[in-house]
Amino acid sequence: MGARDPFTFPEVMRPVLLRPARYKVLRGGRGSGKSWGVAEVLVVLASLIPLRVLCARELQISIADSVHRLLCDWIERKGLLSKYVITNTAISCPSTGSLFIFKGLKHNISEIKSMEGIDICWVEEAQRVSESSWETLIPTIRKEGSEIWITFNPDSEDDPTWLRFVANPPPSCLSAEVNYIHNPHFPDTLRAEMEHLMRVDYEAYLHVWMGQPKGRSKAQVLFGKWRVDRWDSPPPGADGPYYGADWGFSVDPSAGVRCWLDGRRLLIDYEVGGVNIELDDLRGELAKLPGLTDGNGRVIRGDSSRPETIAHLARNRPGQPGLRLIAADKWPGSVEDGIAWLRGLDEIVIHERCTNVIQEARLWSYKTDRLTDDVLPVLKPGNDHWWDAVRYALQPLIKKRDPIKAVPNFHMAR
Q: Which residues contact 141 (CB under 8 A, 6 or more apart)?
């Protein structure tokens, strides 16, 4: 931002807050600075130009439930106390004629319908706003050039706010996802809480801190089996490393992993890969996995459905020795056997740097019945490329069912 820029909110919010649009939507997790940013902008703008601002939320039992305190804090921080008049129910700026009004939508909707001249309606905690409240509020904000600003921490993809403004955004809608990673003022106290939750419950971390809607956890293939952590080296006595690769095709990514076995725990500590990696570049991509090229004799097991890829990557070239690639066995039911074997582990620990493995652990799922929401014994396609690489890496153990006994997995996923 320029030296004369009065704002300190996260940069990712700038294209949304400082450009005209009918709808301005900021969504994300805790500690992102969304509400702070909106309050900062409104306090400054209202001190410069006349604005009539409705600050709304679904439920407001008292003024303490509103953003009143937040706006007051910014008035003080900006040194604007002399310009504003603050009461228990409203905030005004006499020099510009600006006025902040605070209302709950659920119990004041008839009063809000009669309001005139609203320039900006800020809907805070919008994940709680009902569809009927939206249907009444939107046509109420009818002044020419008026705007509706929306801040929320997503709850479910079925919520009216998510469906209306994220899944099916209306015309003239600016939107940004804002999380703690964008907030330069993210406090250390919250950082400690965030890192703890990331380690003990990654699903909850994604919802609370990264603003992702709650998923259908019960349909996850590896539901209840995996977590995220960080470590510098595998535990003493761990078996491995084991390497696996899955070959991409069209829009599917090529994927490689390194993993270890520590008793009945699977540790996945490195991943490589991505979309649109050319065959000639794939050797170098796989070679990024530590230990593959240091002469320790380790092999990498790859998808046997692409023997020409395995042959190409295993071929020696001048100054570039081939990788020790072999084809992983497949057999009828090998995918189901692999899943059962993985679920037979005590736990699967994924290093936090393996972002694709983590993402697929969340999204690799069974289908669910459209009407009853029951989990079906049929895998959804996709979100399994890095996990295919894991299965290939451990294929001899899966086929032998030794030393870890496979257990039925489907009933556990329900």
A: 54, 118, 121, 147, 148
Give CA 409 to chain center in angstroms: 27
Is 218 in contact with 207 (CB distance < 8 Å)? no
Q: Which residues pair with 267 in a beta bridge?
A: 260, 349
- The answer to whether 42 touches 53, Cβ cutoff 8 Å, is yes
Q: What is the pLDDT of residues 274-298, one digit of tens each?
A: 998 988 889 889 989 998 876 666 8
Nearest CA to 173 out of 319, 19, 327 is that of 19
Contact 297, 270 (CB under 8 A): no
Cα angle 314-316-321, degrees, rounded to a multiple of 5? 90
- With CA atoms as reference, report the closest residue to 75 among 113, 46, 107, 117: 46
Rounded to the nearest angstrom, the gap between the alpha carbon of residue 133 and the centroid of all alpha carbons in its chain is 27
DSSP three-state, residue 151:
strand
Cα separation of 4 and 27, whole Å?
27
Q: How far apart are CA 28 and CA 273, in angstroms?
A: 28
Give the Cα separation of 5 and 44 in Å (integer): 11
Extract the tokens encoding 223.
């539901």
C-alpha to C-alpha distance for 19 and 279, rounded to whole angstroms: 44
Q: Where are the alpha helices (DSSP H) in 315-354?
A: 334-343
Residue 14 has a CB neighbour count (10 Å cut-off) of 16
Domains of the chain: 11-182 (3.40.50.300), 216-413 (3.30.420.280)
Read off the pTM. Answer: 0.62
Distance CA 346, CA 351 (A): 17
Long-range Cβ pairs for the range 114-118 (8 Å, 24+): 115/54, 115/140, 116/143, 117/52, 117/143, 118/52, 118/53, 118/54, 118/143, 118/146
- For 147-187, what is each residue's pLDDT tens digit? 999 999 998 887 899 999 998 999 999 999 999 999 988 99
| Separation of alpha carbons 176 and 156, rounded Å | 17
Q: How many Cα atoms occupy the beta-carbon half-sphere of 230 within 13 Å?
A: 7
Cis, peptide link before residue 241, omega less than 30° from 0: yes
Tokens linked to 75: 């008035």
